[in-house]
Amino acid sequence: MHAVQPQAILQGLHLCQLTPLLQGLPIGTMPRYSKVPCRVAALRDRSFSASSSSSLRGDITKGGEEQQEEDTAAQGPAVPKAGWLWDRKIKGKPLNRRSLREQNIKPKKSLGQNFMMDDSVLEAITAAAALSPGDPVLEVGPGTGALTRHLLDTGAALTAVEKDNNLHAMLETEFEETATCQLICADVLRINLPELLTTMANQRRVDAKAEKVQVVANLPYYITKDFLVRALPEGGCVSRLLLMLQDEVAIRLSQTEPGGPDWRAMNIIVHYYSNPKYLFKIDRTKYIPAPKVHGAVVEFNLKSAEERVSVPDERAFLSLVKKSFLQRRKALRNALQPLVSSAEALVALEAIGLTADARAQELGLEEFVKLAWELEKVKSQRVLAAVEE
User: Fold this and answer.
1) Which pLDDT tens digit goes with each residue over 312-338?
2) Which long-range contacts does 93-96 make (Cβ < 8 Å, 24+ apart)?
């Protein structure tokens, strides 16, 4: 495990200096793993209630003799065939409520810390991630390292960003002998996230199956929007985001149909950059400490720039969407001022089959894209008319 100081990636500094630290485990020095046949059953739409078992009954079936090798410097085996997982157990016992008290680890309300340490939930998230040995994965907010252990057990090359200095120090001690784990002590909202993700994707192990980075996170609820705004556009080097969110927010962001009171600008932005899917609910009592609301896991399958729907100008399109929802009760022809005049907005709305009283919450991604193109035509006609005069 290599600890990476945040100064190297704050303020937009280049990550080329961190190349040796952010690389995956060098080929030829790979830890030895024992193969265990493993069938991962479908975990979609599972709801983890307070009364659910701590194990995934029947979801994960193992066979064969499990072995654990402690000599991490030995030459590893060839990449296993599809349908197999590498079983590598990280040293150290998982923390629980009692051990948290014994180590004087207290969740900080100021950082929105609610630790997820329930094995049934952690196993479900790991199975949903479907990681293969060497796959690059970024974990945001590892906290006590409970999910980190599960992710590392798959053989993935993991980089974890933790803001809490005390937890970062604990994680350094826990994973100091784990060569496939790099730790960064920093605020994920302040680091140069695009450069970090690009570096991880470019320096993945040659035997890794995944070509892009996968992001897994138990996000503090209060940074959900800010993190999504930064992470969603990274479809060029990130395959998907697998996030634990507030259940209400998870339901809203995974909506596909406009029209309701919960349909907001963020819905349009999410669908522009990704294909969201609600996976399963997490009972609030599964967290330590228990928040006032339930949680949920949502996956956002990111779109590359080539896969996104075509718009005249991305920045202008996002501005149009945000402006449209600022005054939700206003008709769009009025809400869009001063971007365009009421008359110009009306011409564009009628061109795509909407009435003069249409409001933002009635439009989905497709309608907003059509509106953007029509407004572009209106602006072009205005410029042309001005030139002719």
Assistant:
1) 999 999 999 999 999 888 999 999 988
2) 94/119, 94/146, 94/149, 95/144, 95/145, 95/146
- Reported as a single tens digit per residue, the pLDDT across 67-106 is 333 333 333 333 333 332 333 444 445 555 666 666 667 7
The size of the chain, in residues, is 389
Report whether CATH 3.40.50.150 matches the domain 2-302: yes
Domains 2-302 and 314-388 share a fold: no
For the chain, the structural domain boundaries read 2-302, 314-388
What confidence score (pLDDT) does residue 17 get?
Answer: 37
pTM (predicted TM-score):
0.74
Q: How many CA atoms lie within 13 A of 262 on its CB side?
A: 10
DSSP state at residue 26:
P
Unique residue bearing structure tokens 């349908």: 83
Q: Collect all residues with Cβ–Cβ distance below 8 Å to 140 and sequence separation of at least 6.
A: 160, 161, 188, 215, 216, 217, 218, 219, 227
Backbone angles phi, psi at 249, to 5 degrees: -70, -40
**Among 60, 310, 33, CA closest to 154:** 33
- For the chain, the maximum distance between any two Cα atoms, rounded to a whole number of angstroms, is 84
Q: What is the CATH number of domain 314-388?
A: 1.10.8.100
